[in-house]
Amino acid sequence: MILPGDSPQAIEQCARHLRGGGLVGLPTETVYGLAANAHDDAAVARIFAAKGRPADHPLIIHVAGVQALGHFAHGVPAYCTALLQAFWPGPLTVVLRRNTGMAMAASGGHGTIALRCPAHPVAQALLAKLADAAAGGACWGSQVWGLAAPSANRFGKVSPTTAQHVAEEFGEAFPVLDGGPCAVGIESTIVDCTHDRPVLLRPGVLTGQALHEACGVALAAPTQAQQPVRAPGTLASHYAPRARVRLLEEQALRDALHTLPPTAAQRVAVWSRWEDAPTAIRQCTMPDVAAEAARQLFAVLRNYDAEGVEEIWVQTVPDSPEWEGVRDRLQRAAATWTHTD
Ligand code: TXA
Ligand code: MG
């Protein structure tokens, strides 16, 4: 059931549902999340079950602002405070040392916790409504609210960027607040703040340089031991549509298109920054601004999947830093296949 995110009644209804241990489809500026009360281990278990995600795979906890930090985590380094000042609310997730007993199941039992303050007004309205109820003693006493919310898609599949995407995947299983299409379009940048220097665990729309400038400390690439916490073997299948994704340099893509037999044209669709494929082939134009391409990426993959194409041929993206997030998602989508080729 899709509910209008700008309706106070819908926010109230979803807040009540979350307090009772239910799940809610939540718009954020990055992608839609599948939210539950982070303090309620049974509710969090429902997220893992709905997604088909392994229970030791930690979730991001969404909070109303920096005031929630001390409730969930400790040992916040100065560079992290500077990052939060610059980018919260927004598409930045920080990993910190978890306070004992806080969001245990949501953090997959790890000693760390991932926190993000979403900028989307609907997510903010829902968190504010939950905080009101907590202050009034309606539930969870004086506890600070946190919403555990991974992307609202089945494990390993493409993240949703509209309320319709969520409803298509989960039907009537839980209410979905409609906050319109996501403005960012790819998941948040994740920075591990449990070391001397910030470590980039997942690229997003914030570039390493922007993060460096904001906090004055250069980011380190993760060592083997600091790799993002992920269940083994799942990396390759992340962000994969059903169709096979092939990443091709411009010339290789043009050559492949012009030698494609007409009988195969129905099976192939293209996403490239130029548009002159043979007319029988589905093609849409990738914007040449990285932020715009990020906004469209998952919807393009989903739409082609819905049209039943077998292969999506995507032009490789420029090598510059602002494309890092899109490059990362495309490489993961293509990796499922390169591993089995
Ligand atoms: O944009 C986003 O971040 C979206 C929206 C809904 O906010 N959420 C999202 O959540 O992508 P999720 O749960 O799919 O992200 C999980 C990733 C894990 O794969 C891991 O890399 C990192 O967040 N993570 C979560 N908790 C962690 C922890 N305690 N320690 C280290 N990494 C953690
Ligand atoms: Mg996800």
Map the helices and strands.
Elements: E1 2-4, H1 8-19, E2 24-26, E3 33-37, H2 41-51, E4 60-62, H3 69-72, E5 73-74, H4 78-87, E6 92-98, E7 112-116, H5 121-135, E8 147-148, H6 163-170, E9 176-178, E10 189-192, E11 199-202, H7 208-215, E12 244-248, H8 250-258, E13 268-272, E14 282-285, H9 290-306, E15 311-315, H10 324-340
Parallel strand pairs: 1-9, 4-7, 6-10, 12-15, 13-14, 13-15
Antiparallel strand pairs: 2-3, 3-8, 4-8, 5-6, 6-7, 10-11
Helix pairs in contact: 1-5
The site of threonylcarbamoyladenylate has 26 residues, from strand 6, strand 7 and strand 11.
Organism: Candidatus Symbiobacter mobilis CR
Protein name: Threonylcarbamoyl-AMP synthase
GO biological process, one term: tRNA processing
How would you portray this structure in words?
By secondary structure, the protein is of the alpha/beta class. Helix content is 33%, strand content 18%. The chain is built from 10 helices and 15 strands. It has helices at residues 8-19, 41-51, 69-72, 78-87, 121-135, 163-170, 208-215, 250-258, 290-306, 324-340; strands at residues 2-4, 24-26, 33-37, 60-62, 73-74, 92-98, 112-116, 147-148, 176-178, 189-192, 199-202, 244-248, 268-272, 282-285, 311-315. The longest helix is centred in the last third of the chain and has 17 residues, at 290-306. The structure holds threonylcarbamoyladenylate and magnesium ion (MG). Threonylcarbamoyladenylate binds at residues 28, 30-31, 33, 58-60, 93, 95, 107, 110, 112-114, 116, 149-151, 187-188, 190, 201-202, 228-230.
